[in-house]
Design goal:
88 residues, alpha+beta, Metal Transport, Frataxin, Chain A, three-stranded antiparallel sheet, two-stranded antiparallel ribbon, 19% strand
Length: 88
């Protein structure tokens, strides 16, 4: 299982919302095709074809749990899991 698959599984499983590193959340968003723009501590992720814009900011070195849930909901809503990637 690749590092990306492990991170994707951690997000989709919902078991690590409070323990996910902020940099790892950004890596997953970028790997899923999101462009990220930075304004101060806010990282704004957007992607063509997706209406929602994700605004995330770190809490220390970790992602905020509610923002991890927002990313999970977006991945599920738009079925963004790449072909061949597994979270089982």
């Amino acid at each position: 299982m690749s590092q990306f698959e492990k991170l994707l599984w951690a997000i989709l499983s919902g078991q690590s919302d409070a323990n996910l590193r902020f940099d790892d959340l950004l890596k997953v968003l970028q790997r899923l095709g999101f462009a990220v723009r930075i304004r101060g501590s806010h990282h704004i992720a957007f992607r063509e074809g997706i209406e929602e814009i994700i605004n995330v900011q770190p809490s220390g070195s970790f992602a905020k749990p509610y923002q991890v849930r927002q990313v999970r909901n977006l991945i599920v809503k738009y079925q963004l899991v790449p072909k061949g990637e597994s979270h089982e």
